[in-house]
Amino acid sequence: MKIIKRQMDNGIRFDLEGAQELYVELLRKHEELEEELIDIFGTWIEPKDDPNDPFVPKRDNSRYGYIEGAPCVRIEYITFNPSSRVHIYKRLKEKYGWEPDCLY
């Protein structure tokens, strides 16, 4: 009880400079690990449209290469996001054949 009273009266010492240095070090390590994971799991292409129900442009669009009335399946490039559970599941399953014990 006396220790708590002293802490309430006087506060607790905190090495702010040390904490800032640690934060920078951890942030740098986080970025290194993120880059390493992106290198390992990479980038992939996914269709934006259902291949069974393709997008049909109503007019030509040279910017996107669309031709009026010509069905197409638009695609998007996806870079692995280590914070995404969907990306983690997808890439572990595709790359290593991993199956989870249970899904929540």
CATH architecture of the domain at 42-104: Up-down Bundle
Helix content: 40-55%
Which sequence of strands runs across the widest sheet? 1-2
Shape: elongated
Provide mean pLDDT, rounded: 91
What is the CA-atom radius of gyration, in angstroms? 25 Å
Query: Structural class, please?
Result: mainly alpha
Distance between the termini: 44 Å
Q: What's the level 1 CATH class of the domain at 42-104?
A: Mainly Alpha
Notes on the protein architecture:
The two termini are 44 Å apart. The chain has a domain at 42-104: Taq DNA Polymerase, Chain T, domain 4 (Up-down Bundle), CATH 1.20.1060.10. The chain has 104 residues and is mainly alpha-helical. It has a two-stranded antiparallel ribbon. The model has no long low-confidence stretch (mean pLDDT 91). It has three helices and two strands, in the order ααββα.
Quick recap of the structure?
45% of the residues lie in helices and 10% in strands.
Identify the notable features of this structure and list them briefly.
single chain; 104 residues; mainly alpha; Taq DNA Polymerase, Chain T, domain 4; 3 helices; 45% helix
Question: Secondary-structure map with pairings?
Answer:
Elements: H1 2-10, H2 16-41, E1 43-47, E2 75-79, H3 85-96
Antiparallel strand pairs: 1-2
